């Protein structure tokens, strides 16, 4: 059912070498490689169907519009949203969060109101809130975690006050791999009458996500992390929330009527999509979602869980190994340090062996401060990685460790 050789054959880049060594790509948390079908969908649209969407009466424009809107339906189905009006196309997770932070704080928050975030957020779920906090006099409250990398839910409960207006939390930590109990956290927030934004950048590629089952008010993700193209992402929002928010950017597409005296805005989701959308990107994204859907998100999750369990066991055999993030529910991300070896040195030497890992603070400096370190090496797995590649990683680390 899960034919790994067939799957790997779908990703041409996996056949290449780096410094004469077969590429071992373990940086999927940063971005994923693209299957041939995604690249072909993009090429095909440029070659055969390219025209600007929504505004044209001519054949090509209508066909491009149909493709673009069909992609919105593919996204809707993928996350089980109620309506395509709730699917806003953006440039990615970062833009989705900035859109929400700007419009939500501007229209629905007052001075001294509070936003709850967590200690393990990516900078893109911290800084947009800080920018707004500075403008509007809003306060950020931070959910702490234990040493295993699990959020402290008792402390979370205590952070709510009558001034709490929004909770923003990552579904899966890009550093620790922790899968946060977002369904439970959303229920808690709703009991206080507070909506929740879930950062799904690291969950969408790895597990089945049903925004209605979670009851998430907002859910955001990036196309490039789920085997789709760069430059396209999604903001899901419940219609009743999106309706209450003002436009983010002004321009074409987002208006109903413009005069110098008064402008009225387009219906959802177009109100939030000023300018020519990345309609080629949305085609690529839809093709990527079709690809992972055909494999089955539950099959991908089971396969990656097996890989991560194997990798954790093998890595722990290495003397001096320190793993960061040992939560009970864990995704396919492993952060580690080995003895006194600087993560940058380890990453650079692994690279010479053809092994691509990420090093540094992973855009989560407050989390690094909490852990008392400056950075880690991070191996993050995707649907095409293998146990053999993990063996190459372990052997590579051993080789570097002996050099030191
Ligand atoms: N949130 C998390 C948890 C991430 O891991 C990332 C990217 O690494 C982002 C947000 C930002 O995603 P993008 O750079 O695609 O906007």
How would you describe this protein?
The protein has 404 residues and is an alpha/beta fold. It has 2 domains: 4-27 and 296-403, Aspartate Aminotransferase, domain 1; 40-294, Type I PLP-dependent aspartate aminotransferase-like (Major domain) (Aspartate Aminotransferase, domain 2). The protein contains 14 helices and 17 strands. It has helices at 4-9, 36-48, 59-79, 93-108, 127-136, 153-159, 182-191, 211-214, 239-244, 279-295, 297-316, 343-352, 365-371, 387-403, and strands spanning 17-18, 21-22, 24-25, 87-90, 114-118, 139-143, 164-170, 196-199, 218-222, 233-237, 255-258, 263-265, 321-324, 333-338, 355-356, 358-360, 376-380. A 7-stranded mixed β-sheet has the order 4-10-9-8-7-5-6, sandwiched between helices. Strands 13-14-17-16 form a 4-stranded antiparallel β-sheet, with helices on one face. Strands 1-2 form a two-stranded antiparallel ribbon. Strand 11 (255-258) and strand 12 form a beta hairpin. Helix 2 (36-48) runs antiparallel to helix 10 (279-295), helix 3 (59-79) packs across helix 10 (279-295) and helix 11 runs parallel beside helix 14 (387-403). The protein starts with a helix and ends with a helix. The model has no long low-confidence stretch (mean pLDDT 97). The chain binds pyridoxal-5'-phosphate. Pyridoxal-5'-phosphate (PLP) binds at residues 92-94, 122, 124-125, 170, 174, 199, 201-202, 222.
């Amino acid at each position: 059912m899960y034919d790994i050789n067939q799957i790997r054959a779908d990703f041409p880049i996996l056949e290449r070498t780096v410094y004469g060594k077969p590429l071992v790509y373990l940086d999927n948390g940063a971005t994923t490689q693209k299957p041939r079908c995604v690249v072909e969908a993009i090429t095909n649209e440029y070659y055969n169907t390219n025209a600007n969407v929504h505004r044209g009466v001519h054949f090509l424009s209508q066909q491009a519009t149909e493709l673009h809107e069909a992609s919105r339906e593919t996204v809707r189905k993928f996350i089980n949203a109620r309506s395509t009006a709730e699917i806003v196309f953006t440039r990615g997770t970062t833009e989705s969060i900035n859109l929400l932070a700007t419009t939500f704080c501007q229209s629905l928050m007052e001075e001294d109101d509070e936003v709850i975030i967590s200690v393990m957020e990516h900078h893109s779920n911290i800084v947009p809130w800080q920018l707004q906090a500075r403008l509007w006099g809003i306060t950020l409250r931070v959910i702490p975690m234990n040493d295993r990398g699990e959020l402290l839910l008792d402390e979370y409960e205590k952070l709510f006050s009558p001034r709490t207006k929004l909770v923003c939390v990552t579904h899966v930590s890009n550093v620790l791999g922790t899968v946060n109990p977002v369904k439970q956290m959303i229920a808690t927030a709703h009991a206080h009458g507070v909506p929740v934004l879930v950062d799904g950048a690291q969950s969408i590629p790895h597990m089945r996500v049903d925004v209605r089952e979670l009851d998430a008010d907002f859910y955001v993700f990036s196309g490039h992390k789920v085997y789709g193209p760069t430059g396209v992402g999604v903001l899901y929002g419940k219609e009743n929330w999106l309706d209450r928010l003002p436009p983010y950017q002004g321009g074409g597409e987002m208006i109903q009527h413009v005069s110098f005296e008064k402008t009225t805005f387009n219906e959802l989701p177009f109100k939030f999509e000023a300018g020519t959308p990345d309609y080629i990107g949305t085609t690529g994204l839809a093709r990527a979602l079709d690809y992972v859907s055909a494999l089955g998100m539950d099959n991908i999750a089971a396969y990656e869980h097996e890989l991560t369990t194997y990798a954790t066991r093998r890595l722990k055999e290495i003397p001096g190994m320190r793993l960061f993030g040992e939560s009970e529910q864990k995704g396919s991300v492993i952060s580690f340090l080995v003895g006194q070896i600087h993560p940058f040195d380890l990453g650079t030497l692994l690279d010479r062996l053809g092994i691509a890992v990420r090093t540094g603070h992973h855009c989560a400096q407050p989390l690094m401060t909490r852990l008392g370190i400056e950075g880690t090496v991070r191996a993050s797995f995707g649907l095409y990685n293998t146990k053999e590649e993990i063996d190459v990683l372990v052997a590579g680390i051993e080789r570097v460790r002996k050099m030191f």
